[in-house]
Specification:
Distance between the termini: 41 Å
Strand content: under 5%
Radius of gyration: 23 Å
Oligomer: single chain
Number of domains: 2
CATH topology of the largest domain: Growth Hormone, Chain: A
Structural class: mainly alpha
Number of strands: 4
Strand order of the largest sheet: 1-2
Length: 513
């Protein structure tokens, strides 16, 4: 919303050496991530045990819907970011997104299949407005060249992981104690709490003139007789039932024949987008200079390997959650949904030590270049899944394995994430030709959307094709551990390829570290 009464002060209010607005954004994002990860922790289990429980291919249908949902959640940020930049501004976009996501979480608390798909659609549309803008807002609080910006983002991202750590614990406990809908309801309350923090920051003028629409004239410009500030929320809401239909139209859910066969509408859309991107990048390559071509090739390669890593990493909310539910001894420790908190817990514990490690190695001139970090990150991802594959050897007669395997797996995977994720985004901006930096940033964000297509593919391959109670733990254990071993081989293979060709990649990257 456009707050006309805000007057920027000469010096924005400060707190602990940072703009005071940072801490309001910190808590807003903490609660938004609380809602997102709280819901995600329950989503796969809820679909398998409630929404699709009558289907013999419930795991298969769940994998398809989860992949489509995840892909659209991340793809929506590209559109939402563009609308914010050109029309709404960050404040209005964050509010619109937060309200739509809150509605989605509360609708999830309604016990109805139609409400379920509508809820996912509300969250997808809302996330598109909220997620890209609150991160951008943090950067807008600092002037160009401000040395505090990196530490400001570190503080902000700590809020993300605190939300991702606490939410599965609380929402997972509520879901087991009182039912899934109470867990979803708590996620909705978390989203509302985030909006309240953000609103209070505006009222206290901690943001100064930051985050307002780029132009009051454009913001209020009428289109078909309706101001754009009003028209965009209307259009966003109208898209909700369309997205809900797309999510629910998969043949495995609806039954009967489909002109798409085994394909989802979302999967087909992303294949078309992918082909278009490849063709466009090819045309850019032809026009670029040799130096630009080398760096752009590396930017595409980094994005590809990051997509692969996220594809394996995001199995935590789907296949790994089902594995925890069916084959991990969790009695007295935590529930399957609560295991989703382990990744964020390890990130919180390890982020600062690993950051200090890179600083120490830099002083010794031993800090690995980006290709080596990416290669090591994928090797660690492979090692983490190999740990799960090994768990088969310590299973009891019911196919249950010790919790320690899952704990160690998340520890190793989290270290791999810290090797790759923090450096990837900055390298895209360094390697991309200036005229297409924004386009490459869009592709980087789309990489997470494509990662969920990998999640869906793997989820379908590891589907337990029966609701029969006679399908025992040893059967599901064999399916999962064989799959984890195959994932491990792919991740290790990718990591080794990067490390072997790192000297060549170093030449292609030039001075970019």
């Amino acid at each position: 919303m456009l707050d006309k009464g805000v007057n920027a002060t000469a010096e924005d209010p400060q707190l602990f050496g940072h703009p005071k607005g940072l801490f309001y954004l910190f808590f807003a994002e903490l609660w938004e991530r609380f809602s997102f990860y709280g819901m995600r922790a329950l989503l796969t289990l809820y679909m398998v045990e409630e929404i699709f429980k009558s289907l013999s291919n419930r795991d298969y249908a769940t994998a398809a819907v989860y992949a489509s949902y995840g892909s659209l959640v991340y793809a929506s940020t590209v559109i939402g970011g563009q609308i914010s930049d050109k029309i709404l501004g960050m404040r209005s976009s964050i509010f619109l997104g937060g309200i739509l996501m809150s509605i989605g979480h509360f609708v999830l608390a309604v016990e109805n299949d139609i409400a379920f798909f509508l809820a996912l659609a509300f969250i997808i549309v809302g996330n598109g407005f909220f997620k890209p803008n609150i991160s951008t807002f943090v950067g807008a609080l600092y002037k160009d060249g401000d040395v505090r910006k990196d530490s400001g983002f570190t503080i902000f991202y700590m809020g993300i992981n605190i939300g991702g750590w606490v939410a599965p614990l609380l929402c997972g406990w509520l879901a087991v104690k009182y039912g899934y809908h109470y867990g979803f309801g708590l996620a909705g309350i978390g989203m509302m709490a985030g909006l309240i923090f953000f609103w209070s920051g505006i009222k206290k003028n901690v943001f100064g003139d930051k985050g307002l629409p780029p132009s009051k004239e454009i913001y209020e410009k009428p289109v078909i007789g309706i101001p754009q500030k009003t028209l965009i929320p209307i259009i966003a809401i109208l898209f909700v039932p369309v997205i809900a239909y797309i999510l629910s139209s998969y043949e495995a859910i609806m039954g009967g024949d489909s002109f798409l066969g085994d394909e989802t509408i979302v999967g087909l859309i992303f294949k078309i987008i992918g082909i278009t991107i490849v063709i466009y990048l090819g045309s850019i390559m032809l026009k670029a200079t040799l130096e630009e071509r080398k760096k752009l090739f590396m930017a595409v390669l980094i994005t590809f390997f990051m997509t692969m890593f996220w594809g394996f990493h995001e199995l935590s909310g789907s296949v790994i959650t089902l594995f925890a539910s069916r084959n991990v001894s969790l009695d007295g420790i935590m529930t399957a949904a609560q295991t989703n908190s382990l990744n964020s817990m390890f990130i919180i514990i390890l982020a600062i030590p690993i950051s200090l490690l890179w600083g120490y190695l830099s002083k010794k001139n031993l800090n690995p270049r980006t290709p080596y970090k990416f290669g090591l990150g994928l090797l660690l991802a492979g090692a983490s899944f190999y740990i799960l594959a090994l768990s088969k050897g310590n299973a009891d007669e019911n196919g249950m394995v010790p919790f320690a395997y899952l704990l160690v797996m998340y520890l190793i995977l989290s270290i791999g994430e810290l090797f790759m994720s923090p450096v990837g985004l900055s390298k895209i901006t360094d390697l991309s030709p200036k005229k297409i930096v924004a386009f490459m940033m869009g592709i980087w964000f789309l990489s997470s959307a494509y990662a969920f297509q990998i999640v869906g593919f793997i989820g379908k391959q590891l589907a337990v094709e029966s609701t029969d109670a006679n399908v025992g733990g040893l059967d599901t254990l064999a399916i999962y551990t064989d799959g984890f071993l195959l994932i491990s081989k792919y991740a290790v293979g990718a990591g080794l390829i990067i490390i072997i060709f790192s000297p060549l990649m170093k030449k292609l990257m030039g001075k970019v570290h």
